[in-house]
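Hello,

Our lab assistant flagged a job as stuck in the queue for most of the afternoon. It eventually completed. Since we weren't sure the result was trustworthy after the delay, we are filing this so someone can double-check. Below is the sequence as submitted and the structure that was eventually returned. Let us know if re-running is recommended.
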Amino acid sequence: MYEYEGMYVSGKWSPTSGPEIEVRSPASGEVLGRVSEATASDVGVAVEAARAALEHGPWSRSTPTERAAAIGALADAIESRTKVFADVISAEVGSPRKWTPFGQLATTLGVYRSCAAIVPDYEFEAKRPSVMGGEVLVRRVPVGVVGAIVPWNAPLFTAALKMAPALAAGCTIVLKPSPDAPLGLSMLSECIEEAGIPPGVINIVSGGVDTGVALVSHPGVDKVSFTGSTGAGKQIGAACAQDVRRVTLELGGKSAAVVLDDVVVDSKLIKGLVTGVMANNGQICAAQTRILLPRSRYDEILEPFAAAVTAMRIGDPAERDTEVGPVINVASRDRIETAVAAAIEAGARVVAGGNRPEGFNGSYVSPTVLADVDNDMAVARDELFGPVAVVIAYDDDDDAVAVANDSEYGLAGAVWSADPARATRVATRMQTGSVSINSPAPLDFGSPFGGFKKSGIGREGGPEGIAAYLESQSIIL
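-- returned structure --
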């Protein structure tokens, strides 16, 4: 049982005035731990602590090299607790335990370490010639206090995408975990202290929608960075626009994996397609859930793909041979089942899964493949956030690109081909923030990640991620 009473503010746990939140296992329903909800007044205390650390603490005088060292030390502290973090996140999220060391922890460390490597040489100020004569000193200064709101599916990783660049820029942070998975991020307080990060630089407040609203609307917050659904992102974006507050939004996706007609159908392809859609039980915003197959080779590729999905082992996420665990809660399970049933009614054909697995008490959904899907069907347009792949036929490269781009989302994607140059040409035509070639990997830690269209605003990762937490100031010399 993990219990965190209160909120982590100014380097210590302090009481909150909100109620207790029980965190339950999606696999069994048992109580895993408890945290305390932060009310609007509690959020105000956390923001004030972040403001004080920004303006008056040693962090405000830190150099890029010192901030890089702090980010590296935070990564070291997390890495030393890899097993316990993996156990806790697997339990509260339902991530298969065999996947969490890489999917939840190695990715987190990759973000921190790549950012720490960039910071010392980042150009925070430079002189340039003035077109009017003389010189201009262009400075890039911290945006200020950051309100970071992260989802439950990959809590440490999505927090790192916000915290690492914010720390690199010299900002201070108020972090709000999801009420469905706050335990791993509450444990982060131990790492913050071990890394020697000054009190008030990173503060943690737990809670639901009301806590998030209080953080987004607080006048002491200079920037909001949010990862979550497009619906919630629209509300946060509107609230920030009202106050002319800076905002980064990493939102939903319905990414396409385009398999070209020259592809070699081997274990690498099939494993890559399965990983792209089924990793973390399909609960990844960049999951490649639309599989686009050439009509000329449709069945040749569909059959081994469906067989591989059917063979996936469903089980307790704590067991090391489990490949698919539960979705986050019963409401998500029911929503996914309803969407699959509607797709079947609309003409989709079940070639794997399509049912609720027997013998489980938690919120389980069988890994499912729906064939003969038309891109106009709701199941091909709506983000299900579960282990469901839809397979769509196309005629030629132009048709594949048109289908891939026919979506309100544009977060990630993949192209599979025996000819990497051809695959790259197709990738450059896709309206999406990142595209992998012959790989399911949706991002690179040192490069920008984010969405086109309704998949978000702004970028996380690489130098571009740091730039999102800076303001430019020109001093005319």
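-- support follow-up --
The delay was a queue issue, not a problem with the job. The result is valid. The chain has a mean pLDDT of 97. The CA atoms of residues 314 and 324 lie 5 Å apart.
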